[in-house]
Amino acid sequence: MAPSRRLTTIRKLRITVLDIIPQGPATSLWARLMNANMASIMAPVVALWCEQAGHEVEFLAYTGFEEIDTELLDRDLVFINSFTRSALLAYAISAICRRRGAVTVLGGPHARCYPDDAASYFDFVLGMTDRSIIHEVLQSAEPQRPVGVMLSAPKQPETLPLLQERWKFIEPTLAKAPVVKLVPMLGSLGCPYTCSFCIDSEIDYQPLGFDRLQADLRFLLTKFKRPRVGWHDPNFGIRFDDYLDAIEEAVPPGAVDHVAESSLAILTEPRLERLQRAGFKGILPGIESWFGLGGKSKTGTIVGEDKVRRVAEHVNMIARYIPYIQTNFILGLDVDEGAAPFALTKHFLDLCPSVFPAYSMLTAFGEATPLNLELQREGRVLPFPFHFLDNNQSMNVRPLNYTWPEFYDRLIDLSEYSFSWRAIGARLRAQGINLPGTMNVARAISSEGFGRVRYHTMIRGLLDTDLQVRAFFDGETTTVPQFYVDRIRTKLGPYWEALPEEALVHDPNAFAAKHSLAMRSAS
Ligand code: SF4
Asked: Which residues of the chain have pLDDT under 50?
């Protein structure tokens, strides 16, 4: 159904923009320290665009520690930004808002990955979002039910409002971060690399304008004595010299601290010297696997032990320039097989004691990448509720080369090794007792380290003792095991009652079905 155009912008709308960060009310130390630093770039941008269009806007970044005031939900229009992991909370909040008469809109990664599912729970579902898409929603802000309208711009916006313009929506969120405050900034979109599991591999690389980036950095220096910027670029430094020229010209060396995700291939020694001078304090390179994806780590076709040695040397060189390094790994890729991928990661940690390892289990997020189409056609994608699709609580792709018990045994062994007191002590000794060293300890003993070891161990136990769970993992049933339903109920807390029951299940093969339909109609 096309959106009605009967209402026009002459009506001043009361709007809430809600950026949902966690899966529900939060309690952990790590969530308290870091959730506010995970706020999105786009939610404040949408709030600003609505305000500039003449509407009354309230903004909240929900970090899991606030009460969401009913007044915020009692509006004409509620925009919600959500990852897939927090989608069920977003669905529950949308249901509350719709009961109170609001029109609801979903944007963010979940809307892009699962648009058809989200359209059953929201009036509008936004893919690529620019100002004209927001204006279209504002002009047709009427209920669209039972199936919401999906809108998407042909590409990502060419430019975003300046930080100064968005600041009123960002500052209250930063105030919630008790120790480390990372100002979210974005200098580019997309990535020229083609990692098959990554949503950004499908977006053309595009810088957002170096003059605007300079204005944002200069503005920040009026707000903090020594600001810390968390760059949200999918792969920082693709146009390295242009980027660093812009930063060096805008602010004095070291006046701003920076944290960014960047490929090893970008991080050559001369560039690291420059990054160090510019104030880069944290780098998060993706290694992903010892048996593939060699392009981004500049190891080409070298695999296995040789790749470990080459990458370890590179990472230790980075550590001479950048104090905080997190290396990212994907577990369960089809290129991995047997004990070697896990044993090699342990060996790498021994060679690079200062790095913090971040593990993600292979996850097929709806229509994020063409790889998901293949996995769905092969029947390998499992219908784990969205709540568990955070790369850690479940792996929704049946591994090609492991049984589930074998995979979990190896995962637990690697996690215990990575977050053992021995490894924690080695990291602290390598880092020293300073902010990066303390952060690493906090991460390891909180939900990210100890918490995950406990969780994976519990799942491993259920694979042996809970027939429902085992049948679900093996793809023999699509009925969500009671264990998972109970966890969602507990985590959503007061929002559970509002969650539509059918939201617990989704079609894991919706992308493949839609694609086949489109092919048939085209032929
Ligand atoms: S290098 Fe990083 S951002 Fe680029 S496609 Fe690969 S995983 Fe995605």
From this structure: 1-9
Distance, CA of 367 to CA of 148 (rounded, Å)? 18
> Rounded to the nearest whole angstrom, what is the distance from the C-alpha of residue 285 to the centroid of ligand 1?
10
Q: What residue type is 267 in one-letter code?
A: L
pLDDT by residue (tens digit) across 395-421? 999 999 999 999 999 999 999 999 999
State residue 7's pLDDT score: 47
Indicate which atom in ligand 1 lies nearest the CA of residue 201.
5
pLDDT at site 447:
85
Residue nearest to atom 8 of ligand 1 (CA): 198
Ligand 1 touching residue 195 (CB < 6 A): yes
Distances (CA, A) of 120 to 18, 106, 116, 148, 220: 19, 11, 7, 6, 41
What's the whole-model pTM score? 0.94
Alpha helices in 339-400 (DSSP H): 340-351, 370-377
Phi and psi, residue 337, nearest 5°: -160, 140
Residue given tokens 């999918």 in the structure block = 234
Instruction: Give residue 474 CA to ligand 1 midpoint distance, Å.
Output: 30
What was the pLDDT predicted at 298?
72
Q: Return the ligand 1 atom nearest residue 296 CA.
A: 1
DSSP code, position 355: P
pLDDT for residue 6: 47
Kindly list the distances between the CA atom of residue 397 and the CA atoms of 41, 257, 308, 327, in Å, as whole numbers in the listed order: 29, 38, 26, 22
Note the pLDDT tens digit of each residue in 234-253. 999 999 999 999 999 999 99
Alpha helices, H only, 378-466: 404-418, 421-431, 435-445, 450-465
Strands (E), 144-265: 149-151, 183-185, 188-189, 206-207, 228-231, 257-260
Residue identifier of the C-alpha nearest atom 2 of ligand 1: 235
Does ligand 1 have an atom closer than 6 angstroms to the CB of 342? no
Report the chain's terminal Cα–Cα distance, integer Å.
Answer: 25
Cα separation, 41 vs 234, whole angstroms: 12
Q: Whose CA is nearest to atom 5 of ligand 1?
A: 201
Residue minimizing CA distance to atom 1 of ligand 1: 193
Among protein residues, the one with the nearest Cα to ligand 1's atom 6 is 195
- With a 6 Å cutoff on the Cβ, whether 193 touches ligand 1 is yes
> From the CB of 200, is ligand 1 less than 6 Å away?
yes
Measure the CA–CA gap between 98 and 119, rounded to whole angstroms: 13
165 touches ligand 1 (CB under 6 Å): no
